[in-house]
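User: Okay, second chain of the day. Same drill as before: sequence in, structure tokens out.
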Amino acid sequence: MQWDFATNGFVHVCGHRGHSVGAPENTVAAFLATRAHGGTTAEIDTVLTADGEIVLMHDLSVDRTTDGSGIVADIPLEAIRQLDAGGWFAPAFAGEPVLTLTEALAVARDLDLGFEVEIKERRNLPHYAKRLAEVLEDPADRARVMMISFDHVSLRWLKTQIPGITTGGIVHARHGDPVQVAVSARLDELCIDLSVWDAGNAMRLHEAGVVNRCHAYSPTVIERITLAGLDPRPSLKDALAAGAIDTLSSDDVGWVAALVAEAGVAPPRDIDA
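Assistant: Same drill. Structure tokens below.
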């Protein structure tokens, strides 16, 4: 799978935790909805269970997004499998399971979906890396994922553990030299919040061989920004048309897909993974 606009000729449309405005985050339902709304990738979150399995969960506890309670790192996988990860969102999604990364990758293969996999693990990164290497043993699966984190040092270390892994550093600040930020941690991508995304910096990253993902929130947030007199949509469309953005992400995949289409660079229905 290719992540850059220059090679693909299209912008990846990414669902933040899947199409999370319309389905429970990090679930099969969210990935199905991502694809149905024109998405080609999904950003997901991962932590370790008590017995060392990588599962999809944004929080370090299961309380917010399941019917259970407790810290994921203290709960074995068998107990995690008993939790309902959909009913909290809406009754129609009751029974959605918490996925292991292995299971999520199987869904991604079926849907031809790429994953940006955020590392939320905090207790045992060495075991996470060991298990990740096992999960991504197939080069095709390894090519399907971009491992991302706020911890750029850990991402640099991860590259020494898993040959060929691609990594993306999350940034919520506008750095004086974003290229150096990427190069210093051997990053393949910078995942940049819309509030600090800059077209000039994006082009400099491209010149250095680094792709970028711009996270564009949701339509509700965009409307609040617009009411403050800072409508980002015209400049986003210009950047998309210029090939400055490799991936555009949002909680609302349909909204992003429509914005990309308006810019004249709509993604294909299928991607070559």
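Residues 5-262 form a domain with the TIM Barrel fold (CATH 3.20.20.190).

User: Thanks, on to the next one.
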